[in-house]
């Protein structure tokens, strides 16, 4: 398991590292006493689940539309945006806004860092994770909603519209699953660790396998396959993969919800230097990551 200060222990098939709460020095944006993560309220959990399910249904309704009807445009950074992204953003915004917390979303203008650096609680949202896959193949997409405090993501929902499935979890709770209507939330009991270890990564990953696996794992014990979007984190959560790694850039809303789900069961999502990811950073960008349940 990942290194820790204490005996790692086990939790329902997961290796616990006890490092998920940030310690002093882990985040250069934290000052003063060591911060401990807060727990999401039941209202925050219900609202995030409702928003993710509603957005997923919006995206399902957009599947039959032609590219012309989706009004596809190219953003300043070269990425694509469509009417499906914007409709999903609109419904998420309308459901989350009454709670009164700031919302950082891929499809909304972000305040400058000076205005948001002291936020104590906020949402990180990707209303359509995997836009290009959605537009090209009408598959491989998700909805990501994360609740964050000063230590990082504390609750997350990843909705897989095509599977009628939402994954959720966070501080103080196991990984759970629900259909898009939010009914019948149930706990997930992960599959046992399997060898060769299964590594999931991006379709756009250029690095060789030895550069993707954590240092304590022999690349000869690993098989890799590409998976779209935040669903890679969910495969770690369910025990359908052992390792997720990416050397290319991510935006924070791409990984925050999955990070929260894994953080709840003690699986650290680390940068390529072995430090926990920093959120609400000036550029809202992540430069590679790894997480492993072995």
Query: What is the average per-residue confidence, as pLDDT, rounded to a whole number?
Result: 88
**Weakly predicted, low-confidence segments:** 1-33
E-strand count: 15
SS-derived structural category = alpha+beta
Rg computed from alpha carbons, rounded to a whole number of angstroms? 18 Å
Global outline: globular
Distance between the termini: 5 Å
- Our estimate of the beta-strand percent is 25-35%
**What's the number of helices?**
8
The biggest beta sheet reads:
7 strands, mixed
Spatial sequence of strands, sheet with the most strands: 5-6-7-8-9-10-11
Any descriptors?
single chain; 294 residues; alpha+beta; disordered N terminus
Per-chain topology:
Layout: E1 10-11, E2 14-15, H1 42-62, H2 67-70, E3 73-74, E4 80-81, H3 83-96, E5 103-105, H4 113-116, E6 121-129, H5 131-137, E7 142-149, E8 152-160, E9 165-170, E10 173-178, E11 186-187, E12 197-201, H6 209-212, E13 222-226, H7 231-238, E14 243-251, H8 252-263, E15 285-292
Parallel strand pairs: 5-6, 12-13, 12-14
Antiparallel strand pairs: 1-2, 3-4, 6-7, 7-8, 8-9, 9-10, 10-11, 14-15
Write a short abstract of this structure:
Helix content is 25%, strand content 27%.
Structural commentary:
The protein has helices at residues 42-62, 67-70, 83-96, 113-116, 131-137, 209-212, 231-238, 252-263, and strands at residues 10-11, 14-15, 73-74, 80-81, 103-105, 121-129, 142-149, 152-160, 165-170, 173-178, 186-187, 197-201, 222-226, 243-251, 285-292. With 294 residues, it is an alpha+beta fold. The longest helix has 21 residues, at 42-62. It has eight helices and 15 strands. Helix 7 (231-238) runs parallel beside helix 8. It is 25% helix and 27% strand. The protein has a seven-stranded mixed β-sheet with strand order 5-6-7-8-9-10-11, with helices on both faces. It has a four-stranded mixed β-sheet with strand order 13-12-14-15.
């Amino acid at each position: 398991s990942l290194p820790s200060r204490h005996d790692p222990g086990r939790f329902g098939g997961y290796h616990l590292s006890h490092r998920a709460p940030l310690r002093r020095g882990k985040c250069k944006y934290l000052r003063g006493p060591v911060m401990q993560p807060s727990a999401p309220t039941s209202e925050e959990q219900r609202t995030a689940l409702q928003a993710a399910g509603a957005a997923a249904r919006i995206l399902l309704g957009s599947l039959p539309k032609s590219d012309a009807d989706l009004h596809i445009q190219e953003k300043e950074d070269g990425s694509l945006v469509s009417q499906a992204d914007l409709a999903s953003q609109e419904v998420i915004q309308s459901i989350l806004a009454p709670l009164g917390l700031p919302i950082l979303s891929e499809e909304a203008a972000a305040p400058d860092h000076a205005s948001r650096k002291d936020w104590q609680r906020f949402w990180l949202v990707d209303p359509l994770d995997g836009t290009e896959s959605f537009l090209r193949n009408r598959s491989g997409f998700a909805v990501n909603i994360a609740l964050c405090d000063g230590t990082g993501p504390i609750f997350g929902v990843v909705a897989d519209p095509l599977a009628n499935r939402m994954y959720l979890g966070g501080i103080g709770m196991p990984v759970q699953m629900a259909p898009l209507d939010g009914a019948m939330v149930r706990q997930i009991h992960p599959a046992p660790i399997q060898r060769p270890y299964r590594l999931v990564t991006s379709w756009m990953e250029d690095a060789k396998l030895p550069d993707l696996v954590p240092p304590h794992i022999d690349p000869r014990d690993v098989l890799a396959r590409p998976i779209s979007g935040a669903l890679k984190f969910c495969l770690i959560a369910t025990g359908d993969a052992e390792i997720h790694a990416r050397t290319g850039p991510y935006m924070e809303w791409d990984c925050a919800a999955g990070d929260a789900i894994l953080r709840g069961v003690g699986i650290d999502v680390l940068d390529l230097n072995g430090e926990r990811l920093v959120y609400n950073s000036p550029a809202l960008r992540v430069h590679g990551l790894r997480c492993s349940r072995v």
